[in-house]
Amino acid sequence: xxxxxxxxxxxxxxxxxxxxxxxxxxxxxxxxxxxxxxxxxxxxxxxxxxxxxxxxxxxxxxxxxxxxxxxxxxxxxxxxxxxxxxxxxxxxxxxxxxxxxxxxxxxxxxxxxxxxxxxxxxxxxxxxxxxxxxxxxxxxxxxxxxxxxxxxxxxxxxxxxxxxxxxxxxxxxxxxxxxxxxxxxxxxxxxxxxxxxxxxxxxxxxxxxxxxxxxxxxxxxxxxxxxxxxxxxxxxxxxxxxxxxxxxxxxxxxxxxxxxxxxxxxxxxxxxxxxxxxxxxxxxxxxxxxxxxxxxxxxxxxxxxxxxxxxxxxxxxxxxxxxxxxxxxxxxxxxxxxxxxxxxxxxxxxxxxxxxxxxxxxxxxxxxxxxxxxxxxxxxxxxxxxxxxxxxxxxxxxxxxxxxxxxxxxxxxxxxxxxxxxxxxxxxxxxxxxxxxxxxxxxxxxxxxxxxxxxxxxxxxxxxxxxxxxxxxxxxxxxxxxxxxxxxxxxxxxxxxxxxxxxxxxxxxxxxxxxxxxxxxxxxxxxxxxxxxxxxxxxxxxxxxxxxxxxxxxxxxxxxxxxxxxxxxxxxxxxxxxxxxxxxxxxxxxxxxxxxxxxxxxxxxxxxxxxxxxxxxxxxxxxxxxxxxxxxxxxxxxxxxxxxxxxxxxxxxxxxxxxxxxxxxxxxxxxxxxxxxxxxxxxxxxxxxxxxxxxxxxxxxxxxxxxxxxxxxxxxxxxxxxxxxxxxxxxxxxxxxxxxxxxxxxxxxxxxxxxxxxxxxxxxxxxxxxxxxxxxxxxxxxxxxxxxxxxxxxxxxxxxxxxxxxxxxxxxxxxxxxxxxxxxxxxxxxxxxxxxxxxxxxxxxxxxxxxxxxxxxxxxxxxxxxxxxxxxxxxxxxxxxxxxxxxxxxxxxxxxxxxxxxxxxxxxxxxxxxxxxxxxxxxxxxxxxxxxxxxxxxxxxxxxxxxxxxx
Length: 951
Fold this sequence. Notes:
Blueprint: H1 18-28, H2 31-36, E1 41-42, E2 53-54, H3 75-81, H4 84-104, H5 136-151, E3 163-167, E4 180-181, H6 185-201, E5 207-210, E6 214-215, E7 218-219, H7 225-228, E8 239-240, H8 246-252, H9 260-270, H10 283-294, H11 300-316, H12 336-348, E9 351-355, E10 367-370, H13 392-400, E11 405-408, E12 412-417, E13 423-425, E14 459-461, E15 467-471, E16 477-480, E17 486-489, E18 495-499, E19 511-515, E20 523-527, E21 533-537, E22 540-545, E23 553-560, H14 562-571, E24 575-581, H15 601-613, E25 617-622, E26 636-640, H16 647-656, H17 690-693, E27 711-721, E28 724-733, E29 739-749, E30 760-769, E31 774-782, E32 788-790, E33 795-797, E34 801-808, E35 814-822, H18 832-835, E36 837-838, E37 844-846, E38 848-852, E39 859-863, E40 868-877, E41 882-891, E42 893-899, E43 908-910, E44 920-928, E45 931-939, E46 942-950
Parallel strand pairs: 3-5, 4-6, 5-8, 10-11, 10-24, 24-25, 25-26
Antiparallel strand pairs: 1-2, 6-7, 9-26, 12-15, 12-23, 13-14, 15-16, 17-18, 19-20, 20-23, 21-22, 27-28, 28-31, 29-30, 29-34, 32-33, 34-35, 36-46, 37-40, 38-39, 40-45, 41-44, 41-46, 42-43, 42-45
Helix pairs in contact: 1-11, 4-5, 4-12, 5-6, 8-9, 9-10, 12-16, 13-16, 14-15
């Protein structure tokens, strides 16, 4: 007799629908096994043949952290292409390399944490490089394209499973885990939710990651919006993965809950399915979930719902059907096609901001290439390790020939003299191990990578070593040895020339110079990463002094000023290219917002020196964010984000005219810091923010970008059809070179009843046209795109009347206009007698913030810092009349009500309540009839949730 083959369990049967297979597998898992699945690193279940699984693989513009991979332009650069199809192909290449890398390294995950769809509302946000645009429609279009590429086109199985970051209203690194974004309903629905919603509805998203911050007083990791909005947009089981360490923050930094059992239970019930906390150690999350079960804060059904959503992703990735997974054999990695795509993306991301005829560069011109970014190919925190590398200088050498290109980096060259008269010296060590880029071998958590200790620390001698000093702004410096290595500090505290580039979660290569209080020309060198001062000991130079008293006093001896080298190179050239910008790990990155739009002073010096020496000077900005630069005397200005492995080649081809630039700005470039709102002011409507509402004169507007060709627009036709508008027009290349044009369609309500955008992007398309060629573009714009959120009735509404359609080359370069009259829904007054007023549903406010009504759901309003604030509600219908007002309120203070801005007639005073959620209902006599504007004045540290009227 032969042993019978055990029957195939239903969860292994590909003929069954995923839902039934998941039901079967869930039933076979023990409670402890299911609980263990809630951590990022879910263990294997060997008795069932279920493999280990981890959520989270960074893949923002290439596979990150896991070693060499194709590196594409930063996300903001992909946004600048305004090219959906290109970005889809980039996503396809990234996910293909993810599969190929996983085949040889099972640490590489298939649940990719990208793209970032946070809107670039504020250009000082440290993570500006990670987003696509300040506009929700453009963001959703680019994000949808990228996720479609990541997902693949198979109807059942996914190549990778993308998770959108970071839910919700997250644009500040300053106090990012404790600050609350006050987001009024109109901003929530018309702005912040929109980019997520349109991308999720497109069907290629596996889930979202909540952000560290709070929204309206409630942490995003316990947000009711996950249930009330996100999960209503699709029938798919979306996986919600926490951000790293955020579950613990609910207690440790935010103090929103008293115990981790309470916070973990609340997060699970809100919809968090996978907890990224404590690295690979799942024990503490398991203990917290078990404790929550024992205390009755969670049920097994809650745990099953979370595990079900995780399993849904794993089934879609083909884990349980290896023979049917169409992507299982993917091996394409660093292919010629991927290299060509990286170059194409970098070329399409270049934005020509200004050109008075200097570009393209004339054949035979002699070039001076100068600036701190001229010979750099910078990576950011979410980059992979470069396989190929092209700097602007290398690209120009290759394109024009090294004999025609002169180079001056523009660093200040210094020696550091100690108080003993000796100089800091970098010793030579021929026995040191070969240099290797930080994290080149891959790391699940690159924040844990340690600095090198195999090299000898700095010493002192009578000659010293000449160091290249760069001031990156705000007094943050790097110092580089002649061999190209940066001074860095490892865990043992010694200073070594050991880093190939500044980098790491805590950058160990940055310093500050502080004036000495005891020596006129002396300085103290403070290491930014540790906060300690550099001192000289017998065993080497180290950061050991906690205060100035133990610090070495250093005197800077300049052997060359950067501007002098730049001026010499510029004076002998036909054209000067000043390559300026940022290092993505310094002054503007995750955990650190920028403080200003201004170009760092060191780079301003270099720009002035080049321009004074040669009027034919072009500024090339390579940066992760906008700058405010005075370009009055500059004949040409370009911008590109850090362009990945092919950045230099791409830039040189654009400068030479091999490719006509056609990138467009994905966000407004403001003229000065004075134009910016507060970093924590999330009210884009009231604060008149982004191109949608900004009423000033930008340095360069949203959608702006020039070309070496010229284009004309004509034949605009608008045809209303059912629930959409059909818009068509023609674009003609009237120039002498083949080029891309990005045609942009905007809408505007002509006579809105509430503040509406000055113009709002409705559609765009990037097209390639040869000289003399014409194309007709057609867009179908749903009427829903013209709606706004009616706070009076809590739903979207299309306003009747005139709507203008604007076609052009940017938000300010409008070439064609048409007006269409639409039959919308007339405004109706607020039925306050029946429904009262929810405090957060105001039309206007002054000095208030929206906060949580309870820890689970709902909103209330409080005066900022316990002072005095005001809410205005327009068009309130009291019908035949009311005689009493009631307020639902907590805290301490007074609520005053008035009509149409008149005197207060019904003050309600509240004595201190026990806590912020201990609401009471208080009333006062108040008479009103007909339709009026209601003004509420809030005084003191109170929370107002609702106002009712009766009669």
